[in-house]
Design goal:
Residues 1-120 form the Response regulatory domain. One of its GO terms (biological process) is phosphorelay signal transduction system. The modification 4-aspartylphosphate is found at residue 49. The chain is of the alpha/beta class and 211 residues long. It has 2 domains: 2-140, Rossmann fold, CATH 3.40.50.2300; 143-210, Winged helix-like DNA-binding domain superfamily/Winged helix DNA-binding domain (Arc Repressor Mutant, subunit A, Orthogonal Bundle), CATH 1.10.10.10. The chain contains 10 helices and 6 strands; from the N terminus they run E-H-E-H-E-H-E-H-E-H-E-H-H-H-H-H. The chain has helices at 7-19, 31-41, 59-70, 85-92, 111-122, 130-141, 149-159, 164-171, 175-188, 197-210, and strands at 2-3, 27-28, 45-48, 75-80, 100-104, 126-128.
Length: 211
């Protein structure tokens, strides 16, 4: 199954996989259609882009993670121009449950190599572009690199000792938005949910000060 919003790329991948003997059950253009098509067709492998409608951010990758959670044996090959570091790590950490791959479109120079990667992922192996590996390792060395600019801004204000309400006033956002950003900071800095929020807040600030 293929999920790619670009019509020409979608048709090209479909033709390529068919030529190498694979049956393409469905080829869709957005993450919602991907989720529905998987439930309908129950494929062995999904090939998906990262950025798809409606927001063109990380819908395809988030859909892939959700599908892996619902169908642990479903093989997933991400084929994209972008490295979405936060969710890429989450997807690759699920490799022990079945085939996973993450390849960059611009770095695929040989059709046969791509076909081989598809076969390997479908067979339960892990195939990852070395540039993806390099960026993920870099992120592990610097946990703050996982944060968005807004999350970094919120963390900086936390380091100044400001409350959620004060942060909301400074950034002209709602208290709920601040709480969501802080929750994301906790998750991306691997601060366990079984700690109380105040303790996690202190640990997040310490991580920021180290950076």
């Amino acid at each position: 199954m293929i999920a790619e919003d670009g019509v020409l790329i979608r048709e090209g991948i479909t033709g390529l996989l068919t030529r190498f003997g694979h049956e393409v059950a469905a080829a869709v253009g957005d993450a919602e259609a991907l989720m529905a098509a998987v439930e309908e067709h129950r494929p062995d492998l999904v090939v998906t882009d990262v950025r798809m409608p409606p927001k063109f951010s990380d819908e395809g990758l988030q859909a892939a993670i959700a599908l892996r959670a619902a169908h642990p044996r479903l093989a997933v090959l991400v084929l994209s121009q972008y490295i979405e570091q936060t969710y890429a790590s989450e997807l690759l950490e699920s490799a022990r449950r079945g085939g996973v791959g993450y390849l960059l479109k611009d770095r695929i120079g040989d059709v046969a190599e791509f076909a081989d990667a598809v076969e390997r992922v479908a067979s339960g192996h892990t195939v990852v572009d070395q540039e993806v590996v390099g960026q993920l390792l870099g992120r592990r060395r610097d946990p703050l690199a996982r944060l968005t600019p807004k999350e970094r801004e919120v963390l900086a204000l936390m380091a100044e000792g400001r409350s959620n309400a004060a942060i909301a006033r400074t950034l002209t956002v709602t208290d709920a938005a601040v709480a969501k950003h802080i929750g994301n900071v906790f998750v991306k800095l691997d601060l366990p949910a079984n700690d109380d929020d105040q303790h996690r807040r202190v640990r997040a600030v310490l991580e920021y000060l180290r950076g």
